[in-house]
Amino acid sequence: LNPRFSGGALENWTTVSGTITTGNTAAEALGGAGYYAAFGGASRTAEFKQSVYLAGYGASTNLTARLRFYAHVLGTDTSSTIRVYLELLNSSDTVVATADTGSVTPSNSQWNRYDVSVAWAATAVRARIRVTTDSGVEFTASSAVLSEFKLTLGQSLTNQLANPGFESGATSWTTAAGSIVSVNTSSSYVGGF
Prior knowledge:
By secondary structure, the protein is an all-beta fold. Helices cover 0% and strands 39% of the residues. It contains no helices and ten strands. The chain has strands at residues 14-17, 19-23, 36-40, 45-53, 64-73, 81-89, 95-100, 112-119, 126-134, 144-154. The strands form three sheets. Strands 1-4-9-6-7 form a five-stranded antiparallel sheet, with no helix packed on it. The protein has a three-stranded antiparallel sheet with strand order 8-5-10, with no helix packed on it. Strand 6 and strand 7 (95-100) form a beta hairpin. The protein starts with 13 loop residues before the first strand and ends in a 39-residue tail after the last strand.
C-alpha cells in the first residue's frame, strides 16, 4: 500500500487530477516522523487513488473491508476538505459496493483518525481507495495532508474489549501483578476504539 509514502515516494498511488506531493516536516508529520501526502500547485481540487487485489474471497459471508487513515490540515486553514472513498470493484472494474467519509475538514491542530468500512460484495476482486480534496478557494491548493493508510478485510472489526480506553478506570480489567492506574491527560488521543 505504501501507507506512509515511504521516502517521500508516491509509489502505488496514482494521481487522477491536480498535483499530489509528499512532505515530512517533523512538526507536522504523524507521530513527529514519516511522510504524508500533500497537495500542491494552483488547483482548487485534486484526487489520487490506489487499487489492491483481494481476489479469492468470492461469496464469503460476514466479511467487511475497512480502511483506516489519518488526516490533518496544515496551518490555520479551515476551508480545506477531504473525502475518502473505499470502493469494491468486480473483474470489469465496476464499483459493486462503496462507502466514504463524506466531505470533512480535518483539524488544523492535530491528526484525526478516520475509518470507512463496507460489507464485502460476492463479485468483488479489488478494493480501491480514492482520495479527493477541495481547498474551497480558487487557484489555491488544499492544506489537507493524509498518512498511515491501513486496509483490512475480516469478519470482526469491532473492538471486543470492554473499556478499551480506560474511560471507566480499571473496570473490566484484572490485575495479575502490581496495580492499574488510569490517568486523564489534557491532550486527548483523537480517534477512538
